[in-house]
Specification:
Elements lengths: L1 H11 L2 H4 L2 H16 L12 H28 L1
Amino acid sequence: MGQEMWFLVPLFANPQYLLNEEFFNLINEFHYIQDYNIPLGKTLDETDAHKLEYFTIIKNEMAVALKTKQDKDAKKN
């Protein structure tokens, strides 16, 4: 779904109306946690369930984007 939206949203809507600062902050926070090994919470029970869900979505979309890029690069070679 995310990949399709990436390619199709600019055809029918201004992405600025769909993405707000909160989403960019979540993506930045995801990268900080991944890059610097910062825990999301003290324990799993204390961790915000919504953030876990958002971070799972970000992780999955990043993996799909990387695979798409690798496939595209492989076709060029």
